[in-house]
């Protein structure tokens, strides 16, 4: 009669026991042949308890746990520059709602055409995408990153072709690696992250981790908690750590 374990997990490799008994097996020495190796594995498995209960001390559990998903290579936030857990949870919730809305309307938007006054760059035109997303002034380096700068004309981000989302995201992250953060960049990064389809491709994972490292590095150089760039940098880091 089969044991309970065998009923749940039937043996894939039947092993001949031969003339010896289980007590003849020497677990301390190396097996002398393939059959003996498999018999040792079975014996070791039979000696393991069917149910293992972890001994946890409730006193060591903190009531307020913090989100601490690791992004390798990120600079630690200076004291007072990291957002609260509640703020992070709220931002992740808001972002999730945006993603769900995009998913619901994805078929509709992919069937739409762009307005006549919007000229999309060619797929391989990296410089054209930088100019398209960031605006002429930021692209040419003549725009200030302050919030009182003259705003660029608004674009309907939901009409960006989805097949180019990851490519444009990588282009903008590459641009960000060598330049300061500007509001136009933040709006596009948020929109592109929201448009990424799950499960994420390995290239997407690599790109968003690169983005988080750059944001963390720039955050570590800020002089004041009142800096206008801090909330945006924290938001992007939060979204990458809680995809």
UniProtKB/TrEMBL annotation:
<dbReference type="Pfam" id="PF04938">
    <property type="entry name" value="SIP1"/>
</dbReference>
<keyword id="KW-0508">mRNA splicing</keyword>
<dbReference type="InterPro" id="IPR035426">
    <property type="entry name" value="Gemin2/Brr1"/>
</dbReference>
<keyword id="KW-0539">Nucleus</keyword>
<dbReference type="GO" id="GO:0000245">
    <property type="term" value="P:spliceosomal complex assembly"/>
</dbReference>
<dbReference type="GO" id="GO:0032797">
    <property type="term" value="C:SMN complex"/>
</dbReference>
<dbReference type="InterPro" id="IPR017364">
    <property type="entry name" value="GEMIN2"/>
</dbReference>
<protein>
    <recommendedName>
        <fullName>Gem-associated protein 2</fullName>
    </recommendedName>
</protein>
<comment type="subunit">
    <text>Part of the core SMN complex.</text>
</comment>
<comment type="function">
    <text>The SMN complex catalyzes the assembly of small nuclear ribonucleoproteins (snRNPs), the building blocks of the spliceosome, and thereby plays an important role in the splicing of cellular pre-mRNAs.</text>
</comment>
<keyword id="KW-0507">mRNA processing</keyword>
<comment type="similarity">
    <text>Belongs to the gemin-2 family.</text>
</comment>
<keyword id="KW-0963">Cytoplasm</keyword>
<dbReference type="GO" id="GO:0000387">
    <property type="term" value="P:spliceosomal snRNP assembly"/>
</dbReference>
<dbReference type="GO" id="GO:0097504">
    <property type="term" value="C:Gemini of Cajal bodies"/>
</dbReference>
<dbReference type="GO" id="GO:0005681">
    <property type="term" value="C:spliceosomal complex"/>
</dbReference>
């Amino acid at each position: 009669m089969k044991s309970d374990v065998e009923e749940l997990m039937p043996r894939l490799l039947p092993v001949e026991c031969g003339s010896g008994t289980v007590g003849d097996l020497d677990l301390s020495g190396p097996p002398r042949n393939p059959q003996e190796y498999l018999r040792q594995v079975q014996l070791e498995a039979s000696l393991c308890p069917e149910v293992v209960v972890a001994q946890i001390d409730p006193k060591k559990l903190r009531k307020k746990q913090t989100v601490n998903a690791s992004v390798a290579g990120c600079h630690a936030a200076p004291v007072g520059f990291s957002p609260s857990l509640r703020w992070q949870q709220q931002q992740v919730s808001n972002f999730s709602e945006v993603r769900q809305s995009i998913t619901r309307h994805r078929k509709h938007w992919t069937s739409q055409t762009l307005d006549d006054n919007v000229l999309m760059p060619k797929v391989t035109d990296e410089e054209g995408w930088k100019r398209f997303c960031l605006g002429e002034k930021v692209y040419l380096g003549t725009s200030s990153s302050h919030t009182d700068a003259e705003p660029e004309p608004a674009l309907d981000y939901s009409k960006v072709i989805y097949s180019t989302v990851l490519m444009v995201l990588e282009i903008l992250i590459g641009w960000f690696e060598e330049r300061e953060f500007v509001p136009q960049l933040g709006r596009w990064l948020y929109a592109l992250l929201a448009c990424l389809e799950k499960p994420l491709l390995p290239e997407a994972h690599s790109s968003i981790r690169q983005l988080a490292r750059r944001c963390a590095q720039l955050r570590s150089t800020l002089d004041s908690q009142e800096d206008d760039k801090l909330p945006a940098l924290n938001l992007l880091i939060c979204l990458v750590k809680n995809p």
